[in-house]
TrEMBL record:
GO terms for molecular function: calcium ion binding; peptidyl-prolyl cis-trans isomerase activity. Pfam families: FKBP_C (PF00254). PROSITE patterns: EF_HAND_1, EF_HAND_2, FKBP_PPIASE. It comes from Cyprinus carpio. Residues 1-87, 111-199, 223-311, 335-422 form the PPIase FKBP-type domain. This is peptidylprolyl isomerase. PPIases accelerate the folding of proteins during protein synthesis. GO terms for cellular component: endoplasmic reticulum. It is an enzyme of class 5 (isomerase). Residues 478-513 form the EF-hand domain. Keywords: Calcium, Endoplasmic reticulum, Glycoprotein, Isomerase, Metal-binding, Repeat, Rotamase, Signal. It is found in: Endoplasmic reticulum.
Length: 519
């Protein structure tokens, strides 16, 4: 079958002009041809867009009879022919692959939803439509009658990123009706197609674990708070968003609807330090509407995730003992003065700070609010030379605000070693008895029995109690300073000596509540 424009004449003037009829001539060439033999023979071998001048003698035209009043008998006819189109009833959709990704994990199948760009043209090269001119993909289902039959067939088997040239004969396109003013009847169509996206409404989230640290001590569950980095891209590789570009993790709760459903699902079961590639179909992402100018409607999204850390708001400090001495006579507790070494890092291994950065290890009194709560807790119950690894959730560390060099909501990992331990006294005390105090106390304190105790005698008595293990001074403060302060509290008339009457328990003159007295 051919579709031609022609001008025909016998000498002059033209007796027929196909353009005068409003549409080109369409007819079959060969066995069942309904055109005059000379024209039938003259168009054979023509190419689309080829123009021929065909001279036909009378015996291959209308012969001695002519044709009505238009063509006289024995007329030699001259046809000026332009071939616009040709096809055969046996033709099928022709597919030529122009480019195809090497790693093609999925191809288009019937009932899939696809997004593609296309340029549509006639065989003569005239462009009749283009999605690129609208800067928007054509989105539709395949194999459900939403497309012309030839396009339904031509899209099958395509991969995302693949480019095809699809030639569709008229009877698999718009046939004798054409389409509007751009596609004439009986037109063969050529589509240059780039497949941007494909999914099926039955698709679920697809998770590819790319790297997982060993051992994985814990996996994320619904209700956990997670920090992760991500790159978000479309199936054609175009990146639409990245946490790395903001130099900040994305922080959210898992399974509570704060992120798209597909990511909510994909984050469950991850380990700290794990890398995952997650493919999210539109019905589990932003659906038909997309999201602003960033994400088009019905877009499949691919997220490359790196899990930095996660925790649960109910988490406590996790303590792992690395080394413990065989002999452990004393363990640290609140109010003890300790010296310790530490390294602090994020769960992904990022080093934050270390005691090795300073001239000497730090000293601190436990339970006095001098440390973040989780570290204070993790340092208690330790033996000297014991080493621990503790994991501190953010609500027991620096919380949502973070600190200098510490991101907000960060889980911290501490490597600890207890170097020294001095047992302490309860908060507010300077001295405590570890055994029953002497009874009566004043005669024991008045070592020369002169009925008065000056500072020197008082200091000697208290130091003796400490040396013999019957009492304990507040650690971390010079003992002479402590003893001087204790002495002043007992020397009520400030005459430089303590008498037996002054040693008796004071009673607050305002409310008669006994004052706190170490002795």
């Amino acid at each position: 079958m051919i579709r031609i424009k022609y001008t025909s004449l016998f000498l002059s003037p033209p007796f027929s002009l196909s353009l005068d009829k409003g549409f080109p001539f369409v007819g079959q060439v060969g066995v069942e041809s309904k055109v005059i033999p000379g024209l039938d023979k003259g168009v054979q071998g023509m190419c689309v867009n080829e123009r021929r001048k065909i001279t036909i003698p009378p015996h291959l035209a209308y012969g001695v009879l002519g044709a009505g009043l238009v063509i006289p008998p024995d007329a030699t006819l001259v046809f000026d022919v332009l071939l616009l189109d040709l096809w055969n009833k046996e033709d099928k959709v022709q597919i030529r692959i122009l480019h195809k990704q090497q790693n093609c994990k999925r191809t288009v199948m019937p009932s899939d939803f696809v997004r593609y760009h296309y340029n549509g043209s006639l065989l003569v090269g005239n462009l009749f439509d283009s999605s690129n001119l609208r800067n928007s993909t054509y989105d539709t289902y395949v194999g459900q009658g939403s497309l012309i039959k030839g396009m339904d067939e031509g899209l099958l088997g395509m991969c995302v990123g693949e480019r095809r040239s699809i030639i569709i004969p008229p009877f698999l396109a718009y046939d004798d009706k054409g389409y509007g003013t751009k596609v004439p009847p009986y037109a063969t169509l050529i589509f240059d197609v780039l497949l941007v996206d494909v999914f099926n409404v039955k698709d679920d989230v697809k998770v590819e674990v790319q790297k997982i640290p060993q051992p994985c001590r814990r996996r994320a569950v619904v209700g956990d708070f997670i920090r992760y980095h991500y790159n978000g891209s479309f199936q054609d590789g175009t990146v639409f968003d990245s946490s790395y570009s903001r130099n900040s993790t994305y922080n959210t709760f898992i399974g509570l609807g704060y992120v798209i459903a597909g990511i909510d699902k994909a984050l469950q079961g991850v380990c700290v330090g794990e890398w995952r590639r997650v493919t999210v179909p539109p019905h589990l992402a932003y659906g038909e509407n997309g999201s602003g100018e960033l994400i088009p409607g019905s877009a499949v999204l691919i997220f490359d995730l790196h899990i930095i850390d996660f925790h649960n708001p109910k988490d406590r400090v996790d303590i792992k003992v690395i080394y413990k001495p065989a002999e452990c006579n004393l363990i640290s507790s609140a109010n003890d003065l300790i010296m310790y070494r530490y390294n602090c890092s994020l769960l992904d291994g990022t080093r934050l700070y270390s005691s090795d950065d300073y001239p000497e290890p730090p000293r601190v009194t436990l339970g006095q609010g001098k440390l973040i709560a989780g570290l204070d807790e993790g340092l208690q119950g330790m033996c000297v030379l014991e080493r621990r690894e503790i994991t501190v959730p953010p609500h027991l560390a620096h919380g949502t605000n973070g600190a200098s060099g510490v991101p907000s909501n960060a889980v911290l990992l501490f490597e600890l070693e207890l170097l020294q331990l001095q047992k302490g006294v309860p908060e507010g005390f300077l001295f405590i008895w570890l055994q029953d105090s002497p009874e009566p106390l004043f005669p024991a304190m008045d070592m020369n029995q002169d009925q008065e105790v000056p500072l020197e005698e008082f200091s000697a008595f208290i130091k003796l109690q400490v040396a013999e293990g019957r009492g304990r001074l507040h650690p971390g403060i010079d003992s002479d300073v402590i003893l001087g302060d204790m002495f002043k509290k007992q020397d009520r008339n400030a005459d430089g000596k303590i008498t037996e009457d002054e040693l008796n328990i004071n009673v607050n003159e305002d409310n008669e509540v006994p004052k706190h007295e170490e002795l």
